[in-house]
TrEMBL record:
Signal peptide: none annotated. This is Blue (type 1) copper domain-containing protein. PANTHER family: BLL1555 PROTEIN.
Amino acid sequence: MIPTAAQAKVKTVYMGVPPSAQKTLNDKLNSDVNDFFPHSISVRVGQNVRFDPSGFHTVDFPTRGARQLPLISATGTKLSGVMDAAGNPFWFNGQDQLGFTPALGKMLYGKSVVYDGTKRVESGLPFANHPKPFTVRFTKTGDYTYYCDVHPGMKGVVHVKSARARVASVAADTKAIERQVSAAEKQAKRNAHTIPPTGVVYVGSSGPHGVETYSFFPSAVTVPIGTTLQFKMSPNSYDVHTATTGPGDPMRDSNSYLGKLAASINSPVFDPAAVYPSDPPPNLPSLTPAAHGNGFWNTGVMDTSPQTSRLNSSGSVRFDAPGTYEFYCLIHPFMHATVTVQ
């Protein structure tokens, strides 16, 4: 006998790498996977799916025909009076103040909701410590694609079948997760050997299905004075990064210039110097220890999605003075690279 939806077990989807695989992927391989585990799941109509926040991701089920929500939106305020360390106004005065899209601040964690395609279900950002899973009950048959609003390209599918249809068992879903984890680990090992084109530094390295390795490639470069380097998102990345140099180590010194910029990205409204390029595009800026009064240069927040027109996918800078320049990603401040100019 086929069990009814009410009798069927609640199925679980991990929002990111399952906890059992995080030690290998996160710690040993310095990587993560911007995907849902399992990527695709089948349930009967009326059945519940439990979404477990195992990483910094959202679940966004739009209404039929609608797009996912953007991570970053204008707040409605124009920037003014933002100065660099030399006392000069930044170019982005007059541009929009940016912050997290407000709808992402309304969290569903620990709650239960119903989805039938007529009203958006949005988990919100998992800012709380140890957020609880939330549950979605699917009341209409169909194939429903859902998204992570943090990582463009990250999506999963829920196939909702009729009440008497055959669907994969929980044990089969577990096997699918194991295969997904195994493939991700193999891809992360390949990512570690990424070699970018000449004159390019990749900020992160990405592979199929959202496998992202959190390093600069290469992480150490020696160049002559006058060299231009392009800091660029790796092809097909689902992630968001910056390449930023200036005073301080944002990982170890939260009170430093870069530390404060990095901290602002965890607040509802961002410091504009963290998210906008430090210099007006498409100009090629000159980097010296005196740039902006303190040696500051920033790509701004980057991704590869064509839907986020506010964000670039790369930034270039010319090194015009000898010295050692330390670069960080303000979003993932443990990412570090050194450029030595001779």
